[in-house]
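Memo to structure team: turn this sequence into structure tokens by end of day. - J.P.
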Amino acid sequence: MVNQFRYEIPTAIEFGNGVINDLAEHVRKLGGTKVLIVGDPGVVNAGVVDKLSKPLEDSKIPYVTFSEIEPDPAIKSVEKGLNLAKEENCDLVIGVGGGSSLDTAKAIGLMLTNPGNIRDYVGINLVPNQAAPVIAVPTTAGTGSELTIWSVLSDKEAKTKLSVGSIYNMPTLALCDPQLTSTLPPHITAATGMDALTHALESYVNKSTQPISEGLSIQSMKMIAQNLRLAVVQGENSDARYQMLLASLIAAMAFNSTRLGLAHALAIPLGAHFNIPHGVVNAILLPEVMQFNIIGNVDKFAEIAEIFGENTKGFTKREAAEKAVSAIRQLKKDVGITQTLSDYGLEEKHLDMIAEEAMLSGNVPVNPVKPTLEDLKNICRSAMGSEVRETVTN
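Reply from structure team:
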């Protein structure tokens, strides 16, 4: 048990079906006179941005829309959006969409009140000034970006991802309407749900865990265990959608204060170099990372097995912990994530590069087992598929 810890959450949360109908009132309370709406082309084409712009129009609040955002948001997108916000004299930012849109919106809000370039603040706790007001409206149940200190941005030329982490980067308001997730296709529901699970689970077992985050992680995992499969196969199930968005939010509240582990450490370079969707790469890696980490936190992995419905009566703690791994493998299969890292082009020749880049992540020091470069490579090999494992072994 840790003797000293800190927990802080400056973001206000409005959660429930229909909460976006009060958007204009929130903008006024925050002093916004002109709004920059940040959303990727997908949410624009799906009409989600229209659901936000209408209450602004009805209340005669002027706004402009910025949608030049890629799946892995580029630093250039932040710069373009910032220039538009300044040209239009916007003083409040609304981000709507998944992690890419929300991370971009948060970074734009940050740069409206801070000097220099967003690159100047790569790292943690380097931002001097509070961001302009940002309202985050998630449309996926996974990233938790509506509540985190992080904006993860891509340098497309260098094929690397850069993370800006600051309490000043947290949105002013998280406006979470589960109805906005109801049209997500099954594969995105699955991937984002596994991302949320990875957040909760890695936070729970890592060395930075503390009593508040632990309670949040447990609650999030219970909700995901009960609802992710339903949300994938019954997209119209409003209760499952509600529970999954809430589980994602709660998981973000957990890892905000603890960081994560090796799945996320490896996911960053793998995503940057091989264009693997973030939720998918976490789903592929999570069981392999769990297997590696068991000896660092046997008791908690045994508890995870029970959370996911495994019968551990009569088993040793170690045997119960092993059941947690098989439970997550089954969940991943049930929601349709069957890909391996090899399917995205990862080969043995790439492993040195991936392991070396992953080792630089701040998620490595908090992992329950201290890894070597060879450990990270072996985790990737395990996630590349059985043929690769057999080749390496032989």
